[in-house]
Design a protein that fits this description.
Distance between the termini: 71 Å
Strand content: 15-25%
Bound molecules: nicotinamide-adenine-dinucleotide
Structural class: alpha/beta
């Protein structure tokens, strides 16, 4: 579709910002709403229900009732599978609408909403649907006169609290395994990007997910989010977001019913390129492509680049040559690869980091400016700093924007030590032709995922999550099913 056609569709698209509880669109109990502003042009898209404790209570009652009468948990895995496969199919057939909502809501290029966000979300739902009738329980090796069954049961009411950077994908990583295992789910999308989550709930109902099983509460973290995390009848929280809020969620659980808390938090991922890297062009393309993908708003973005000193000049020259292809453009133009920053708060935060890099003495090699101001949207140039020291803010804190910090090293052990010298531990990259060096580095890096001679591979089949303050859970893969199940032992006397 052309840029013009996307703009035409953007002006005519119908957007409903009401909450979704018990199979119905509803206003917040208080009647309150908040403005949903598009980062593409700074204009208001719609009003969204501002849910708070009263709405959380209503959603929990609906979700609990659905769980207790077993309208979903009581279906056979094969029945749940059929419905979830339909859900995935409907996400695909509504793909243009969902992609447009995603782009208007959070600013990412339509090219990627269409080719990444919608298909990945559908594949995630489909993958867990296909998995659920292949998961077997266990019988323990006990004496002949007893039988000990070890069975997985759904946890009950699961709250999923998710961020704004990949709204559909982050939601799918939680709701797919939770629904697959028979739980009821209450999803709280970010206040910055609630629109696709609300449509997903309508589509799930259309696919046959019974009313009350999948509810969506838009609203602010300190209102709807904290009320969910403090609620005594929520059994489990799957949280993705910042480390700061992840800590709060754990506090809320301890202040209430000790609900299970799974966290997927921030990152400051290192990418180490040795002089014996097998393909320098590929290393440059991955380093640059991965930091600027999604405007740098990715938890696993390789934001700290460690280059062996002898290849630094060559690497930087090639990197700078790639920068023009990442100039921010109109997110509704299908050729654009770098879109808008999600809102003015995040824009100011990213620009604040750029200013701190300059004032703390890092060398600005590219970018550093806000651009396309006349569009009314929020755009930042792809930015590179070199001569960054480990004490600078841009070296220590997660920026969550298109800013790369470059360090040099002469000793791989020192580079690994510096790479690990962060409270985060999400992902890392290492580039070398020497399998021993690669393996040694992969073992030494304290992160959930290590990439060797690549950075951007990803698939629903592998776990995604972090060490240290990057969180305690793993989304994706069969391991995610464990988060949303209880293990029960049943002893049967056969004597
Ligand atoms: P955030 O922590 O500000 O918000 C995340 C969610 O928590 C939102 O829905 C928000 O409304 C809610 N929230 C905020 N305050 C709350 C409170 N007091 N109680 C309950 N809920 C509350 O994060 P963000 O800015 O939306 O997202 C960016 C962060 O997410 C980054 O740190 C990024 O690294 C991280 N992230 C991690 C992963 C991962 O898999 N590890 C994936 C994507 C994003």
């Amino acid at each position: 579709m052309s840029t013009r056609l996307w703009h035409d569709r953007a002006t005519s698209i119908k957007i409903d910002g009401r909450a979704f509880i018990n199979g119905e669109r509803v206003n917040a109990v208080s009647g309150a709403t908040f403005d949903n502003i598009s980062p593409v042009n700074g204009r208001k898209l719609t009003q969204v229900a501002r849910c708070d404790t009263a709405d959380v209570n209503a959603a929990v009652i609906a979700a609990r009732a659905a769980f207790e009468d077993r309208r979903w948990a009581g279906k056979s895995p094969a029945e749940r599978k059929k419905i979830l496969l339909k859900f995935a199919e409907l996400l695909r057939s509504n793909g243009d609408e969902l992609a447009l909502l995603e782009t208007l809501d959070m600013g990412k290029p339509i090219k990627y909403s269409l080719s990444v966000d919608v298909p990945s979300s559908a594949r995630c739902i489909q993958w867990y649907a296909e998995a659920i009738d292949k998961v077997y329980d266990e019988i323990a090796p006990t004496n002949d006169d007893t039988l000990a069954l070890i069975t997985r049961e759904p946890v009950g009411v699961v709250a999923a609290i998710v961020p704004w950077n990949y709204p559909m994908i982050m939601a799918s990583w939680k709701i797919a395994p939770a629904l697959a295992m028979g739980n009821s789910v209450i999803l709280k999308p970010s206040e910055k990007s609630p629109l696709t989550a609300l449509r997903m709930a309508e589509i799930a109902l259309e696919a046959g997910v019974p009313a009350g099983v999948f509810n969506v509460l838009p609203g602010f973290g300190h209102e709807a989010g904290s009320a969910l995390a403090l609620h005594d009848d929520v059994d489990c929280i799957g949280f993705t977001g910042s480390t700061r809020i992840g800590k709060k969620i754990m506090e809320y659980a301890s202040q209430s019913n000790l609900k299970r808390v799974w966290t997927e938090l921030g990152g400051k991922s290192p990418n180490i390129v040795c002089a014996d890297c097998p393909d320098l062009d590929a290393a440059v393309a991955a380093a640059i492509g991965s930091i600027y993908f999604n405007q740098g708003e990715s938890c696993n973005a390789p934001s700290r680049l460690f280059i062996e000193a002898s290849i630094k000049d060559q690497f930087i020259e090639k990197a700078l040559a790639m920068i023009p292809s990442f100039e921010p453009g109109d997110p509704l133009n299908p050729a654009t690869v770098m879109g808008a920053i999600v809102d003015h708060i995040q824009l100011n935060s990213v620009m604040g980091f750029i200013e701190s890099g300059k004032s703390e003495g890092a060398r600005l090699l590219a970018g550093g400016n806000q651009v396309r101001v006349e569009s009314g949207g929020y755009f930042v140039e792809p930015t590179i700093f070199s001569e960054v020291s480990t004490s600078m803010r841009i070296a220590r804190e997660e920026i969550f924007g298109p800013v790369l910090s470059v360090f040099t090293f002469t000793d791989l052990d020192v580079a690994i030590r510096e790479a690990n010298a962060t409270s985060y531990g999400l992902q890392a990259g290492v580039w070398t032709s020497d399998i021993r060096k690669a393996h040694k580095a992969a073992r030494a890096l304290r992160v959930g995922t290590v990439h060797v001679n690549q950075y951007d591979s990803d698939d629903i089949t592998v776990p995604f999550g972090g060490y240290k303050q990057s969180g305690n859970g793993r989304d994706k893969s069969l391991h995610a099913l464990e988060k949303y199940t209880e293990l029960k032992t049943t002893w049967i006397n056969l004597a």
